[in-house]
Write a structure and sequence with these properties.
seven-stranded mixed sheet; Rossmann fold; 163 residues; 27% helix; alpha/beta
Length: 163
């Protein structure tokens, strides 16, 4: 999952960030969402630890390419809590927002550029990627191109564009 996250991070670096890039990360507990975020952050230049922001809701990473916000909404009691924390301020131009458990913020969160669903399968992980915007489609095309030339094992991918 770290290696795939690095591919995704490389694709994010290649995109011109006029608007915020919003990525929803779906999957059961232990599927690898935070591990994937670790790979994305490493590709974007972060060299420290990456912890799950389960209790803090968000961890900011100020990096050379942009600021990446890693959200974990698992413990969110009510989507309205996002308004109290100023959620809309995180979606400024140039920022990347990685959001685990986005269903917990339904009605408050904007539509993602890219939605990634992780399923645990006997041979590893199955990833379903859906782009919802043109920016998401650009990232998706980059990921698929990088993945085709990689030696990553244990991951199968399906993709869909809804933009």
């Amino acid at each position: 999952m770290v290696a795939f996250g690095e591919l995704l991070g490389e694709s994010l670096l290649a995109v011109s960030h006029r608007a915020a890039t919003i990525i929803y990360l779906q999957g059961e507990l232990g599927a690898g969402k935070t591990t994937l975020c670790r790979g994305i952050l490493q590709a974007c230049g972060h060299r420290g630890a990456v912890k799950s922001p389960t209790y803090t809701l968000v961890e900011p990473y100020v990096l050379p390419m942009s600021t990446v916000y890693h959200f974990d909404l698992y413990r969110l009691g009510d989507p309205e809590e996002l308004e109290y924390m100023g959620i809309r301020d995180y979606f400024e131009s140039g920022n990347v927002c990685l959001i685990e458990w986005p269903d917990k913020g339904r009605g408050i969160l904007p539509m993602p550029d890219l939605e990634l669903t992780i399923a645990v399968i006997p041979s590893g992980r199955s990833l379903s990627l859906t782009s919802h915007t043109h920016q998401g489609e650009t990232v998706l095309v980059g990921v698929l191109s990088n993945f085709a030339g990689s030696s990553i094992k244990g991951i199968t991918i399906s993709e869909e564009a809804q933009c």
